[in-house]
Amino acid sequence: MRALDHPDRHTVMRAARILGERREPDTAVALGRALRQYWDEPYVAAAVVRALEHFDTAEARELLSDALGHPSIIVRTAAALALQESHAAQTSRRPRP
């Protein structure tokens, strides 16, 4: 998770992707910190948002909802798609009558 603080932004984006794919419990918290840290850097923030898509928690959904208000269309689009995927996944897990 230390790679989220790396000075090279490409390294941060790769780290976010890998951490999202691994889905380890503490990772969502670190990704939330990274989203706040890189809020003014749209490409990095979008990579973090895409990583948060892999977490089915209230905290991750709240961060994604916050990202819908980002000034960059890149981040807003990533957040909207992530929330759409999250909603679809929740709907598919519900028992059918």
Secondary-structure content class: mainly alpha
**What shape does the CA trace take?**
globular
Q: State the helical fraction.
A: 55-70%
Please tally the β strands and state the result. Answer: 0
- The SSE string, one letter per element, is HHHHH
Count of distinct structural domains: 1
How many individual helices?
A: 5
State the end-to-end distance. 42 Å
- So, CATH architecture? Alpha Horseshoe
The average pLDDT is: 90
Largest sheet: none
CATH-assigned fold name: Leucine-rich Repeat Variant
Round the Cα radius of gyration to an integer and report it.
13 Å
The quaternary state of the protein chains shown equals single chain
Low-confidence stretches: none
Strand content is under 5%
Query: What is the CATH first-level class name?
Result: Mainly Alpha
Provide structural commentary.
The protein has helices at 9-22, 27-37, 42-52, 58-67, 73-93. It is mainly alpha-helical and 97 residues long. The protein has a single domain (2-93), classed as Leucine-rich Repeat Variant (Alpha Horseshoe), CATH 1.25.10. It is globular. The relative contact order is 0.14. The model has no long low-confidence stretch (mean pLDDT 90).
Could you name the key traits of this structure?
mainly alpha; 0% strand; globular; 97 residues
